[in-house]
Input
Amino acid sequence: MWLSRIIGGMKVLLISPYELGRQPFSLAHAAALLRARDHEVVLIDLAQGSLPREGLEDFDLIGISLGMHTATRIATSLLPMLRAKAARARLVCYGVYAPPNRGLLEDLGVDVVLGPEFEDELVALTGGEEPDKGAKVAFVVPDRKGLPALTRYAHLQLPDGGRKTVGFVEASRGCKYLCRHCPLVPVYEGRFRAIPRDLVIADAAQQIEEGATHLSFGDPDFLNGPTHALRLLETLHERWPHITFDATIKISHILAHRDLLPRLREYGCLFMTTAAESFDDTVLGFLDKGHTGEDIRHAVVLARQAGIAIAPTFVPFTPWTTLDGYIDLLTQVRDLGLINSVSPIQLAIRLLIPEGSYLLRIPGFRDRLKPFAEAILGYPWQNPDPRVDALQARLQTWVEHVEGGGHDRLSAFAGLWRLAHEASGRKAPPLAADGAGPHIPRLSEPWYCCAEPTTSQLARCAVGA
Ligand code: SF4
Output
């Protein structure tokens, strides 16, 4: 029996295929739980290194963290080799993207598929106590030993050319909203929970000791629990007044908690990432975002009044996008002085529809989709106007080109602006050379979790794999 081999500690390999420049919490947290039970745990971040050439056959359990779409795409290309080389290991995939892709993962040889609240079951798989049904994971301080140094991950670029080493922390899990396109929604169904403050502080402390001078909060939404967030920041600021931070905060929270913004600034908030998605109220309605285009404009003003930079993200290409709507989005980005605040890839992203997406609940929507495609881990769709799909493909190629070639954001935007106008048969109005808005602090690797990976991302990670 498989469990009979595990007495005396197992040899466990935990793999993160890709977390967009972040040191993976999902590996460090699992490592802490398993090492506390005397298992030998090896951590591999494929974005920074590669799998061991030898010795895969020695592992008893291999866990792969699938917290992102791109990670899952990389994992599916890796699994046949892992299955063959680690024949006796129990293969486990865990994270937000594991349950929706259960069938495919099992076909590729995965033995156990766990969701994002995976820790207790992972412990049980290594001979630990069986989890109580419905019990919540007891968090511990992540054990980051064995992961590459923070300096190898995304750093913070400051407008004056300075840079800061970034620590990556999480203060909560899940989300209390039900945005239809969000991959968290089918798994968390509107629930979220706070990670105890002392654990977050201890995790921040160990990264500050490692040299972090800026913390990036990876919470799906930092203000799902505003009291928890504020108390945490208060303590962090008291202990390390020089530490700055960034967080993801949704538009409706920026509006609802406008009174808190000055305190966020006081505690060191340099910028907020916010999922604006679209300025088109019809599209926002389909996505059930809970905000309007006008709310986005208002949130930009509130953030600037509080002295916090705002970095909107978008899903500009959807089945409902029109050429005029896309040009309007670019126009609003320009008029709001956000060209320097928006990563160019955000203006070329195509909506992903994974298995279980709440978009599939829109009456009649499924009829507009092609059957689920394993190659993209989603339901392919076409815009009713083929010029829109053609434009998106051209823009994606353009963005990949500019990201590899040292273009500034204004010249990247100018290419998108020209191509969009060309697609609709119009001459692009000139862009003012000084109209790109303020330069803002930003991470050296742009964050977008649920978009199609770019060719360069896949290529870079394939090297590690
Ligand atoms: S898109 Fe953001 S606010 Fe909406 S459910 Fe997902 S994490 Fe929550």
Notes: The two ends are 31 Å apart (CA to CA). The chain has two domains: 2-125, 155-444. The mean pLDDT is 92.
